[in-house]
Structure formats: C-alpha cells, structure tokens
Design a protein that fits this description.
Chain lengths: 496, 233
C-alpha cells in the first residue's frame, strides 16, 4: 500500500536536479526568444523570459525560481540587449527587468509553494483517513483478536513506511511476515513499562479498559532510506491505529464471552428441560400408583370387585410404565458412555413387532395400531430386546401425536439385504427442515405444546440403539399428501 | 352414603390419575366430574354447580395458572392445585392468582380428602362466623382473643396472636408468606419472609409439644404455613 501511495503522487525532483531543470527552462525560453526574434524581428522579448521564470516558480519552487530569474536576466542582457553579446548593467531598463524577474520569481514561488503544501496536506489527510477507514474495516471484520493484531502490524508498517511487530503473551505478529523480531522487543513486551522508544523502534502499548492487550513496535525501514514526509503525522496515525485495534480486541473478547454465556445458558436450559421432563414422567405414574394404593387401603372394602380390579390394573400398568421409562434412561446413559454391548443374533421381526403393538396398544386409547404388509419370515440381525425398545419408542411417539381415532401403520419389507420397517402416523407431521433433527436428544417438535409430556429422549434412544446394531433411522413426510410422519427403521438383514 | 357431600371437578389430562382418584372420591361421598383440558373445565364450571375444583397445573391446551385466573374472573369456587413438590414458584403464583390450596404430587388419597374438606370448610367460613378454632389440644377463641393448650391459657404477643389467628382463619389451608406478612405487619409492610420464620419459631415454642417436629403449625417449604385442621390433629 505504501508503494501505491508514492506511485500515485508525481515523484518530485530533488536537490541539484531542480536547478538543472530550471536552467533547462531558461535555455528553452532563450530558444523560443531566438525563434521569435528571427521570425518577427522584434527585440521586445523580455516577456518570453518572464514566462520561463513563471513556469519555473510554479513547478519547481522558490530556490530554482530565483536561480532562473538571475540566469534569465543574464542571458537576456547578453543576448538581446544592445550592445548584444556584452553584459551591461547601466540603463534603468536593465534594473527594471531584473527587479521584475526577481519579484515574479519570489511571489509566484511562494504562492506555488503554499499551494503545493496545501495539496500535500490534503493528500496526507486523505491518506490517513483512507488508512484508518481500511484498518477499521479490517479490524472489525477480524473474527479473533490475533487476526486484529496481525492486521494492526500490517497497517502500522504501511503507515510508518517500515516494518512493525505486535507482541502479546509470547506470540508475535509482524509485517513483513518474515521479519526477524529483535530479542529486546520480546523483553520489553514482557514488562509493563511504557517506554516510547527502544533502539530504532518506536513503541506503543495496546490497552482497553485498563487491560494490557499487547505491545506494538515499528520503525522506518533503513533500506527505504528517505525519512517520512511528516513523521509526526505518521505517529499520530499509529496512535489511532493502536487505539482502534485495542477497542477491536476488547470487542472481540466481549463477543467470545457472550457466545460462551449463551452456550452455557442453553446447556442450562436443556438440563432444566430434561430435569422437569424426567421428574414429570417419573411423578405421573408414581402419583397414579400412590393414589390407587391408598384408595384401596382406605376404601377397599367399600369398592366392588370391578373397581378394585381397575385400580390394581392401574398400579400394574403404571409400574410397567415406570419400568420402561427407567430402562430408557439407563439405555440412554449406556449409549452415551458407550457401555451398551449386545450379541447380534438372527431374530424374527414379526414377533418383535407383535410385542411392540401389544405393549403400546393399551395406551393407544382410541388410536388404531395396524400391522400391514408384513412378511412373516422377515428376519433381522441384532438384539431382539433392544430392537423392541427402539421400535416401541417410535410407535409411542406416533401414538402421542396421533389424534384420537387416528391410525398408526407398521409395515415391513426386505430391501437390498436389509430389513426396513415403516411406522406411519396421522399426526401433525414435522416441518421439512426439522426432519433430520427429530432424532436429536431433547428435540421436541414445534407442534408439541409446552405442556405435552415427553422428554424428547425416545427417538434419540431409538437412533442410538439402531445405529449400535449397524442400522439407521430416517424420517420423512407422508407420501400421500396427508399430514403425518413416516419413520423408517432400517436394520441389517440376516446373512445367508 | 346416600346424600352427596359436595360436587367436585377433577381437571387432569393424565387418564391414569383420573382412573385412580375417581373411585376413592366417590366412596368418600363426593360427586366427581372430570375434565382433561382447561377449556373443558371452564365450560363445565359455566354450566354446572361445583364446590371444589381440583386442578392439575400441566394441561395440554393452556397453562393451569391461566385457568385459575380465568375462573377467578367470575367464580369464587375453591380451587385445589395439584403440583410437583419442587415447583414452589408455580404454587406461589397459583395461590396469588386465587387458588385456595395445593397438594404435592404424588399424594395419598387421605391427604387429598383432608385438603378437600379444608377447602369446603374455608368456603363455609366465609358465610358464617366461627368464634372458636380447635386443632387437637389447641383452642383459639377469636371473640375473647384467648388461646388455650389443653385448657390452659397460653400468653401470646400481639404479633404471635395475629399470626395464629390468620392461620386459624384459613382452617387448614396453606397461607403464603406474603399473605401472612400482610395480615400481621399490614398490607404495605416491606418485611422479609425471614421475619415470618422467626415469629413462627417463637409461636411454636409456645404451642407445640416438640417445636422441632411441629404437629400443629406445619411448614410448606418455599410457600408458607398451614395449621393442622380442627378435626385431624
């Protein structure tokens, strides 16, 4: 970038060359004057020389302008003023011409100098503003504090037209990237002292809210040779860059902290949801059992046989439900810790599905569980008990979301040597985008009302169990355009 | 049991709870109607006479607390809330919204029946002026401000008496910390619940046989206090 800035400006001539250029301009004026003299035979040609002086003053500054004024007067006097080819200094006109030349050189030179200075300042301001703008953009788009430090090193190096390094807690970021970092800087970075200079290096500490964020060091590269036009401006620019980088680092730290906090809050929320869900799922059967038992003890003799039977049945069913729930929780824990082991054996799928339907049917109420298109000899490789648990979770989920009177269909088929079971329900379905997520732990469909029971564990356990047996689970919307969900449980078929 | 003691409405979406409770409540002499959703419950209350509503806070269609505030817009029917033990804030919110009492899930049927009786008594108390409250050995005479234990007078400070009187007026129903503060220190008092605890501890020293294992003045953790009702001490 620094190279670009110098290239965009017209490179100014330096030292002796400016005077040579001034002399050349005067010689040019002489040639023009000679041509005009030959063509029009007039000797009033001081204006031509004056023009030369004027141009010199505008383009080359005051010094060359005075030089041009003196040279132009001498040549004019020798070459044009009678007697020609002698230097005379005796008429009033001679003095007048010399004075006018010098006055023009002085006034114009000063004026041009001021214009050039103003232009230079404007350019410098634009350069600073541009550098700050680019740096600010770069800092705020950096996604971590080390990226900010790297960007800062580069920006300082460009602003100071040299090399720069940012040091922090043993790390260093330099520009140019292959810069060898002197040990003295590493030592200073380790100390909190706020020296402004060390050797050829200028130093600035990065801080935000009183927290030290690093040390920036830079120097003008010796190879570049020429000192900066206005080193004070560059230093001010570096100060601002350092401040901006400090703020950017502080901001990125805040962002990291906020993300951490959000993640923690989310975990906490999940844990709370799980806890309240588990406590609800444990408490509901317990409440039914306790109420039934205490009813029987208190009023047993007043109840008729039917009521007593109903209450004992409730106790049995709820105890079974608790048992299932605990088994599910244990499976979950085992799956998570990788402690679930089983021996794969061939087993008949129809029998397992029959048990699942029998198990879930009691709780299905007015919902219909249908086994359709199920080959009797369909057999899979795995653990029949875990498979039953995995399927039961899917069917129970379907029952939970199916409306009263709804129909849940279980079909099975053999496909490419694998066993595929489809469980189709008439529930509200799941939004397309959420389909892959329904097997995630704690996922609960947005269609689930907040009070609806369910831990969001069932399907995740199903996936864990099925995948442990070398199978897979997939969910999709019903193919027939009606609302509802199809969950496919795929298990390895029996090896023949 | 030929005559019906009272009409109850049992609101819970868990079928198994309804199944377990209905026979016992019927055997105890109550006529029981059931509802599985908040809307069903409100529709029933709009059309039928009911003496006590037993309401589970977790309903499928709407928050149980919302059901309470909706019912309270037009009905003073006692509401007994079924809630998990660990959800103190839910219970307090339900009581603030106008529920009369709560019972922790899971519960024994005897406990539920006692709460129903207390709720029914609380209703009667609004229409009659009982001059005396009895709970076991304890007797509180509201007219003479006399408190007796096994017939011997117990001397209470004015605050202790106000606390005991408030609890007795609720007759076995829970009274929240906030309600106690309002009754004892005044409705605008800025008093910490800790003050109530200290006052309760003082009162227990005077009326309980074993202040560390109270039998008359019971703590409802996180919610408030209740007296053992008159017929069950």
């Amino acid at each position: 970038m620094a190279r670009q800035w110098t290239m965009r400006r017209v490179t100014p001539l330096r030292g002796i060359w400016r005077y040579a250029a001034a002399f050349a301009l005067v010689v040019g004026s002489t040639l023009v004057a000679e041509a005009v003299y030959r063509t029009f035979e007039t000797d009033r040609l001081s204006m031509v020389f004056l023009a030369g002086v004027l141009i010199t003053a505008v383009t080359l500054g005051s010094g060359p302008a005075y030089f041009a004024a003196a040279t132009a007067f001498i040549i004019y006097d020798i070459y044009l003023v009678e007697p020609r080819f002698t230097f005379t200094m005796n008429s009033a006109e001679d003095y007048l011409v010399l004075s006018v030349f010098l006055a023009v050189a002085m006034l114009t030179g000063r004026l041009a100098g001021r214009v050039r200075e103003a232009q230079g300042r404007a350019e410098a301001r634009a350069r600073t503003a541009g550098a700050l703008f680019r740096a600010s953009e770069e800092f705020s788009s950096s996604d971590n504090e080390d990226a900010v430090r790297q960007a800062l090193a580069q920006r300082i190096a460009e602003a100071g037209r040299g090399e720069a390094v940012v040091l922090h807690e043993g790390g260093s970021w330099s520009w140019p990237p292959d810069l060898v970092i002197p040990e003295v800087l590493t030592d200073i970075a380790a100390r909190p002292a706020a020296a402004q200079r060390e050797g050829g290096w200028r130093l600035r500490h990065l801080r935000a809210d009183g927290v030290a964020l690093g040390l920036a060091a830079w120097r003008v590269t010796p190879l570049d040779g020429r000192a900066a036009d206005n080193p004070e401006d560059d230093e001010r620019l570096v100060d601002v860059l350092v401040d901006m980088a400090g703020a950017a680092i502080a901001r990125s730290r805040l962002a990291v902290e906020r993300a951490d906090m959000q993640a923690r809050a989310q975990t906490e929320q999940l844990r709370n949801a799980l806890l309240s869900s588990i406590s609800h799922d444990l408490r509901t059967p317990l409440a039914a059992i306790l109420a039934s038992v205490t009813s029987l003890r208190e009023f047993g003799d007043r109840f008729d046989a039917e009521v007593r039977e109903d209450l004992t049945l409730t106790i049995q069913e709820e105890a079974e439900r608790l048992n299932r729930f605990v088994a599910n929780l244990l499976n979950m824990t085992k799956l998570e810790s990788g402690a679930l082991t089983f021996e794969g054996v061939p087993f008949g799928m129809a029998e397992v599905v029959g048990r699942v339907v029998q198990r879930v049917q009691r709780r299905a109420g007015a919902r219909e569980l249908v086994i359709s298109m199920f080959p009797d000899d369909l057999a899979a490789q795995g653990d029949p008990i875990l498979t039953e648990q995995a399927l039961a979770n899917v069917v129970e989920n379907a029952v939970r979301f199916a409306p009263n009177g709804g129909r849940i269909e279980i079909s099975g088929r053999s496909e490419d040597g694998r066993v595929v079971l489809d469980i189709t329900d008439e529930g509200p379905g799941v939004p397309q985008a959420d389909l892959p997520r329904i097997f995630e732990k704690f996922y609960r469909s947005s269609a689930t009302s907040t009070n609806q029971q369910g831990t969001g564990l069932g399907l995740s356990i199903t996936r864990g169990l099925v995948e442990a047996m070398g199978g897979a689970v997939v969910a999709r919307a019903r193919g027939d355009g009606r609302p509802g969900l199809v969950v496919s449980v795929i298990l390895p078929g029996v090896l023949v | 049991m030929t005559s019906v003691l009272a009409h109850l409405l049992l609101v819970d979406d868990e079928q198994q709870i309804l199944r377990a409770l209905k026979p016992a409540l019927a055997a105890a002499g109550y006529a029981v109607a059931t509802a599985e959703t908040g809307h069903e419950a409100m529709a029933y209350l709009a059309g039928e006479a009911c003496d006590v509503v037993i309401l589970d806070l977790g309903l499928p269609d709407m928050d149980g607390k919302a059901v309470i505030s909706r019912i309270r817009e037009w009905s003073e029917t006692p509401i007994l809330v079924l809630s998990a033990r660990d959800l103190e804030h839910e219970k307090i919110a339900a009581l603030d919204l106008g529920a009369d009492d709560f019972i922790n899930k899971p519960f024994a049927v005897g406990e539920l029946l006692a709460r129903i009786r207390a709720a029914l008594r609380g209703r009667e108390r609004r229409f009659s002026t009982h001059a005396v409250f009895k709970s076991g050995d304890l007797e509180v005479n509201f007219a003479t401000r006399r408190v007796a234990l096994q017939g011997y007078e117990v001397r209470l400070t004015p605050r202790e008496y106000d606390l005991l009187k408030t609890l007795a007026r609720y007759g076995g129903r829970v009274v929240t910390h906030r309600q106690l503060i309002a009754a004892v220190w005044g409705p605008t008092a800025q008093v910490d619940a800790q003050f109530v605890r200290v006052l309760v501890a003082q009162l227990r020293q005077k009326i309980e046989e074993e202040p560390s294992t109270p039998r008359i003045l019971l703590t409802e953790p996180g919610v408030g206090y209740r007296l053992t009702p008159e017929d069950e001490a």
